[in-house]
Design a protein that fits this description.
transmembrane helix, single chain, mainly alpha, globular
């Protein structure tokens, strides 16, 4: 009887991990409050609303970090880790939801659809948890993902060299003005928009989505440290972010003949802050840039550890790169929000 009570206590304690997802239910309304606060020039209100926006992925990360440090990886824990990773990706999920509804000509229903989808996720997770025994322990994964890791890394190097770093560098110069950004962009487009190269880049991005999910799945029932949690969380975010970005660029914009330049990305002349729809792009872009660079840093850490580099040195290099990534992100986001030098 005591063991039954103990299992029930462990099960009930796990339900606290639904808090980030419950917080995510209000995500559209936090953004609305931010828009309203900026309209009335209420700095405190705007900061508080945006704090709630970022609290959704932040609380989800705390949840998955806590779950990842448990000694026993049971089925219930894995279910909650999946939920935490999905909640962590709320910013790009809300963007892709809005774009899809726009393409379907469904206006003004973003918040209602968001609420319905997350309610279904919460109910489904609760029902699944209720059918799982809290003392059921999963066996360690036996799948060999070494080849997938190598291919994932090779594809990353190709994307970084040909597109990502030049593209993010281009966005960084946006702080000097739209004209400077455009002049650099026109030069770079001759490379990554070449008729033979662009389809290859798109294929590589899709491969990264699929291979990333393959690499993530077996890690859901393994313990991990802080940087390990950063790697899986940012990977989950990027799966949705990349899909959302490709959908926005190639379906929403290019299909309708819109040039996907800096003015399009920053919604000029209105700006991201002043537009009721586009303000969702602020957390989407800011976290997207930081997380893609941090994911690369964590991936490099994994490679270093696999090649015998001490964990202290690998961690130090990783944190240095994340710090540099944060500075890069601030410059890009500042430019996108209208700051000029």
């Amino acid at each position: 009887m005591n063991s039954t009570i103990a299992r029930a206590d462990r099960t009930s304690s796990l339900y606290w991990h639904f808090a980030p997802t419950v917080l995510a239910l209000g995500y559209p309304w936090y953004l609305t409050k931010f828009y309203e606060a900026t309209g009335t020039h209420s700095t405190a209100g705007a900061l508080f609303a945006m704090a709630l926006v970022y609290a959704v992925p932040a609380s989800a990360f705390v949840s998955l970090l806590t779950l990842g440090r448990l000694d026993v990886s049971g089925r219930q824990t894995v279910i909650l880790r999946r939920l935490a990773h999905l909640t962590f990706a709320s910013p790009p999920l809300y963007v892709i939801t809005g774009v899809l509804l726009y393409l379907m000509k469904i206006n003004g229903a973003d918040g209602k659809v968001w609420l319905g989808l997350w309610a279904a996720v919460i109910v489904g997770s609760l029902l699944t948890l209720s059918t799982e025994r809290s003392d059921t322990v999963l066996s360690r994964p036996t799948v060999n993902t070494s080849r997938v890791r190598v291919l994932h890394g090779a594809a990353s190097v190709a994307i970084i060299a040909v597109y990502l770093f030049p593209h993010l560098g281009n966005h960084a110069v946006g702080i000097f003005g739209t004209d400077v950004h455009k002049s650099v962009m026109l030069v770079l487009r001759h490379v990554y928009r070449a008729g033979w190269l662009e389809p290859i880049l798109i294929a590589l991005f899709f491969f990264q989505i699929v291979s990333g999910l393959v690499l993530l799945a077996p890690k859901l029932n393994l313990k991990h440290d802080f940087l390990g949690a950063v790697q899986t969380a940012t990977g989950a975010y990027l799966v949705i972010f990349i899909a959302s970005h490709i959908n926005s660029v190639f379906i929403l914009a290019r299909y309708f003949g819109t040039d996907t330049d800096y003015a399009w990305a920053t919604y000029e002349p209105t700006g991201l802050i002043r537009d009721a729809w586009s303000e969702r792009l602020i957390p989407h872009y800011s976290l997207g840039v930081l997380f893609i660079l941090s994911h690369i840093a964590c991936g490099l850490r994994t490679v270093m550890l696999a090649h015998g580099v001490s964990i202290q040195k690998a961690n130090r290099i990783c944190w240095t790169l994340i710090a540099a990534s944060s500075i890069w992100t601030v410059i890009i986001v500042a430019g996108m929000l209208g700051v000029r030098i």
